[in-house]
Design goal:
By secondary structure, the protein is of the alpha/beta class. It contains 14 helices and 12 strands.
C-alpha cells in the first residue's frame, strides 16, 4: 500500500535540500537557480515511532521494521503554471499523482539566495501556488462539465450527480477557496471528490523553512504561516533545511549532541514525517515477536481483514479473527501473556475497525 506526499513550492525555497535530508541522499540536486529539479525524485523514509522501539525491547525482537512514507520532490512552480508557464504542465501532472502536499515556504532572509519575487513573504508565496492550483482545477472542471452536460440531458443519473457536484466545486473555487474546504457536500459527493483528482482537494501541510537560529522557536514569518494554516484548518511544521542537511551527514551518536546544542529535542524531519503521516489520515498497527517487531500502515477506518491484507493477501482472503491488545495495555502488562492474565487481550471479528496502536495476531485459513 503506497502513500506519498509531494514536496512543492516556489523555486529556491529549500525543497530539494529538504528532500535530500529526508532521504539522506543527494538524489535531488540542490542549487541556487530555478528548476534544478527537473524530474520528480522519490524517496521512502521510516516513520519515527517510539512505540515500536518499546515493543521490540519488551519482546526482545531481533529486527525492528518501521512503517514508511514516500516523499516526492517536485520541480518548482512559477506564476502562470496553470497555463503551462515554466514547467507548469509537468508540475501539475506530478502533483496530481500524490496523495497529499507538503508545501515548503521560505521563512528566512538570505541575500545570497535569490527569491523569484525579490523579497520574502511566505503567505504570498503560498497564495501564488494555491492560485495556480485553483486555476488548473477550474479549467479541469469546466472541461468535464462540457462533456457531462450532454450526458445528463440524455438522462444519465451518474452524469447528473457529477454535474451537480462540479457546479458546487466550481462556485467554491471561483470564490478563491480550495476544493478541500467545500461545504455542503453529501456523503456520496464527499466519497466522489477524491476520484476527481482535483489539485486543491488534496490535504496540505505547510513546511516553514527557517534559518538555523530560528529552528527551535520559529520567527515572524513562520508565525504568519501558522495563522494562515489555522484559518484553513491545515497543519504546519517548522524545519531548518540547512540543519537537517547537516544532521543527515552525522552518525547516530553525534546527532543527539548536535540537536541539544541547538536547543532541539528531535530533528525537524521527524516532526515533518509524522505530520505528513497524520495528514494522510493513516493509522499504525504492530506485529511483535522474537524475530521482528514491525509497524504497518492502514487508512483510518480500515477493518481487521483489511489490516491483515496489508501483511499478505492470503491473510485477508482467509481471515478468521484478529487477536489484539492495545499498545498501552501490551506495555503495561509486559507483553501478550500478561495482557491475557489481566483480561486485556481481545478477539475481534471481521467488522472490527483498527485503532491506532493495536498489536495484532491474525488467524486465517486458506
Amino acid at each position: 500500500m503506497g502513500f506519498n506526499c509531494g514536496i512543492v513550492g516556489l523555486p529556491n525555497v529549500g525543497k530539494s535540500t529538504l528532500f535530500n535530508a529526508l532521504t539522506e541522499t543527494a538524489a535531488a540536486e540542490a542549487a541556487n537557480y530555478p528548476f534544478c529539479t527537473i524530474e520528480p525524485n522519490t524517496g521512502r523514509v521510516a516513520v519515527p515511532d517510539p512505540r515500536l522501539d518499546a515493543l521490540a525491547a519488551l519482546a526482545k525482537s531481533q529486527n525492528i521494521i518501521p512503517t514508511q512514507l514516500e516523499f516526492v520532490d517536485i520541480a518548482g512552480l512559477v506564476r502562470g503554471a496553470s497555463k503551462g508557464e515554466g514547467l507548469g504542465n509537468q508540475f501539475l501532472g506530478n502533483i496530481r499523482e500524490v496523495d497529499a502536499i507538503a508545501h515548503v515556504l521560505r521563512c528566512f532572509d538570505d541575500s545570497d539566495i535569490t527569491h523569484v519575487d525579490g523579497d520574502v513573504d511566505p503567505v504570498r508565496d503560498a497564495q501564488t501556488v494555491e492560485t495556480e492550483l485553483m486555476l488548473a482545477d477550474i479549467d479541469s472542471i469546466e472541461r468535464r462539465m462540457t462533456a457531462l452536460v450532454k450526458k445528463s440531458r440524455g438522462g444519465d443519473a451518474e452524469s447528473k450527480a457529477d454535474l451537480a457536484l462540479l457546479e458546487k466545486l466550481l462556485a467554491h473555487l471561483a470564490d478563491g477557496k480550495p476544493a478541500r474546504s467545500t461545504d455542503g457536500l453529501t456523503k456520496a459527493e464527499q466519497k466522489r471528490l477524491p476520484q476527481l483528482q482535483l489539485l486543491t482537494a488534496k490535504p496540505v501541510l505547510y513546511v516553514c523553512n527557517v534559518a538555523e537560529s530560528d529552528a527551535a522557536t520559529g520567527n515572524c514569518y513562520s508565525q504568519k504561516v501558522a495563522e494562515m494554516a489555522a484559518t484553513q484548518q491545515a497543519g504546519h511544521v517548522i524545519v531548518s533545511a540547512a540543519i537537517e542537511a547537516e544532521i543527515s551527514q552525522l552518525d547516530a551518536n553525534d546527532k543527539g549532541e548536535f540537536l541539544a546544542e541547538l536547543g532541539l529535542e528531535e530533528a525537524g524531519l521527524a516532526r515533518l514525517i509524522r505530520a505528513g503521516y497524520g495528514l494522510l489520515n493513516l493509522l499504525t498497527f504492530f506485529t511483535v515477536g522474537p524475530k521482528e517487531a514491525r509497524a504497518w500502515t492502514v487508512a483510518n477506518g480500515a477493518t481487521a481483514p483489511q489490516a491483515a491484507g496489508v501483511i499478505h493477501t492470503d491473510f485477508q482472503r482467509g481471515f478468521i479473527r484478529a487477536e489484539t491488545t492495545s499498545f498501552d495495555d501490551y506495555i503495561a502488562c509486559k507483553g501478550e501473556a500478561g495482557a491475557k492474565d489481566a483480561g486485556k487481550f481481545r478477539v475481534e471479528g471481521a467488522e472490527y475497525k483498527v485503532v491506532d496502536g493495536d498489536v495484532f495476531h491474525f488467524r486465517f485459513n486458506v
